[in-house]
């Protein structure tokens, strides 16, 4: 297995939104799904997902609710809001454009100059 | 109507409390699940735990960061308090306000006036009634006073003998201390010094410690008039220390030579000069307590403080109130218990000295409550007046906004159809109201600042604390509170209307001919504001009439052409004029100098000119009558005047003769001539000729074998003449019996001279003053020169101020009401243009239409007038106390203000009625 890649700033939001667009889930489930989708290629302190979740909730992209799980424990479950759904589409579009541009630069082809990647 | 949830308080409070706990729970769940999974993959539990923690990262830092995000910063917290979209509402409110500048301007003006007037009055109330006293635990401090019903009006300070009894027998007080203020002479200083003689522990009572040195040594209350044998120590005030002792840090231990003003007259060696040791300097912020004295709070100061034993008083003379008494309630003791104990002791004192104080009762008032007792009622009236203005302003703004909201029905309907809930619309309207109120409050604070400054500058009289009135944190906070209240008061009307908007009808473009509820609501509001305004207007009218009555009072003396000059001589030890003969000779020289001036018709001297000095109250005994059981009406105003006084002052001699050169001093026990007033003659000798009758000073039992020697020598005072009554203390005060004695039989050092002139007395002020100074430039001083007319003006100044103030407030309220009447009718008729058009088209005469509209407009006004009149009559007692010679339901005044109000309202209604009846039928029908 190759050395895991460092997470690019701002991309965590996109990934979490994407995962939540499939189904509402709690923090640990999001972590597991992320591992599954990236096949463990991304390195991430698992806990650092939580501040990202709170921030997105604050902005109204996701909302949360405490629910009982199958085992009877309380877990905080997050789901996407309409606003979050719009945001995901926007971010995904932007990411696609950005990564295409980066690829083109790497392949030596001329392309549109990317906008400055906006960070937190 | 259900109000929308404007403030998300639960989210704000609830969210904060559990943030950390929730985050911790969420983290724990994550870690446990990770451990479970790792164990399932075959990792030993211990290791799995460590691995899960490693993967999670810095748990504590993440928890703190998360909590910070969830709570948000201070700004975030404020944002979470406000409903979503509030900024949009505020912007919308400002935009809507700007779109109709006339309505907004009128509403703003009304709110600024209403809020500003309230803030101004509150700032005065705050400064005068609610100010803190400069003493620790001041709420326990109580002023004790005596009352002598039937003898003197109002409370007086305390007799030494009674004070000693209270001090000994009342245990509800930690301390019960007395102080006595008197004038003393300081060797080497021309002006006298003010001295407070205080009982032991007076400084401790107030919680004050000397800034330098120590407190006075304990000094038990003495029994005899023998100050010589007691501790002669003084404390000096900070100012005295700075100015007279040069701020000397070594001042403690220095010695001052002092004499009581009466020292020379008592024939003491050296005029009573004795040495006193300075033992301490008082702190710069030391103040004697503000105490009630004759219906005002008097601010007194002292240069020196010395033991009570050094003061000049006699504990065995009752009915002579030397002591100001202040007590500090013991912890846990309530005022009622102190009052009960004081009353018990007072009853015993009354029994023991029934001759001298047959009706003694005692009164205890917390120092903090004194301002409220004295000025509370006037402030209450004033506050009532500005409260009425605010209420009218709110009603008016409600009418204006209601009218505007009706016009905006289309806008609301569109918004509602686009999905805005009813709650959202109501909230938007409330926000608009709040924007108006906030702007109104800002303007109002400005007005309040100006108004308070102007009011204090114009107020005639001295109310302690008044000059400190101004804007401060509390006043601003109250203003904000009042503004919030106004939002509730006027904001509900348009909100109510908007919540009822009929969507379908509006979108169809149907112009509703006004809902039944809307007109009734508006008319009720108009009725309310007319009633409120009438109350204010009537109060202003009554006060003005009362003031005019006061101006017509005959004071009993000539005040137009008389100039008064007060003079001062140094205290006897410092003066060349020590004996009575020398003082009398000086008086003659001054009078001669004044009469020699061109333009002077006559001149005379008096101790205390009318309306310029307090009464000099004495008890008198009428020789020809047995002592009345109730001692009623034995008090008289006793003044010393020169020959020619009655003539100069234009006081008519009704019987007998005025003073002449025959009235000379014949010896210590020889009769003295007096002249009495009409009232004195009527009360004291109701059925005989007063000429030749005899009075004695003090209360003497004429049946007793010997004279009571505690009173001054029993000199017979023989009535030589009767003169007219003089209103000597106030135009609205019925004069007491007045007794005059001639200076030739008892010269006085602090005389005033009155000069009757041919023309304007003010032109003689300079020359007359100079003439007096020229008689003896070394000793004579002329501190005050004033025409008596000025004092007459001062006597009517407060009633004039109140009449003016209330008149101004009533004028403001009247303007607001007229604007309201006009606006409401204009609005209601504009809603009926279509109906007018139809009626006209069907042949209704324009005159009928106009009359019909006028009736509609005037009906609530007439009703409001009737309600207002009823309120005036019902509340008459409150205003009655402030009126002079006018009943609170004075029919001419009430009729005049009602008619004026109705007339103006008729005009305000006529304008829109006329315009509406001129509608072009064709056009108004086509417009729909």
What does this structure look like?
The complex is a heterodimer of chains A (120) and B (928). Chain A is an alpha+beta fold and 120 residues long. In chain A, 50% of the residues lie in helices and 17% in strands. Chain A has helices spanning 11-22, 27-38, 49-58, 82-107, and strands at residues 5-6, 25-26, 42-43, 62-68, 74-80. In chain A, the strands form 2 sheets. A 3-stranded antiparallel sheet of chain A has the order 2-5-4. In chain A, strands 1-3 form a two-stranded parallel ribbon. Residues 111-120 of chain A have low confidence and may be disordered. In chain B, α1 crosses α2 and α6 (101-128) packs across α13 (422-458). By secondary structure, chain B is of the alpha+beta class. In chain B, β2 and β3 form a beta hairpin. Chain B contains 27 helices and 23 strands. A 6-stranded mixed β-barrel of chain B has the order 2-3-10-5-7-6. A 6-stranded mixed β-barrel of chain B has the order 15-16-21-18-20-19. Chain B has a 4-stranded antiparallel sheet with strand order 14-22-13-23. Helices cover 49% and strands 15% of the residues of chain B. The interface between A and B is medium-sized, with 18 and 22 residues.
